[in-house]
Amino acid sequence: MYSLALSFLGFRPCAVSNAEDAFARACDMHPDAVIADVTLPGASGLDLTRRLRADIRTKDAGIYRPRHRWAFSDTAKLKYTPND
Known about the structure:
By secondary structure, the chain is mainly alpha-helical. The chain has one domain: Rossmann fold, CATH 3.40.50.2300. It is built from 4 helices and 2 strands; from the N terminus they run H-H-E-H-E-H. Helix 3 links the parallel strand 1 and strand 2. The relative contact order is 0.17.
């Protein structure tokens, strides 16, 4: 859904199906932004966000996590940063 809409707007999205692939592609591509679903196979979107923030290659990427799928307890586990 996001990939199609972003392509239509002129962006070059890269869709992956799990957290490990997402992290690897982000490290290779140095994206300006990442859309991370909380229910990714392999690791949660929270885990992916922590790894992206900890890596020098991806720490400055803006990260959007669709909140409609998050339980309150999950959102409380991640410290807010200005790029969230």
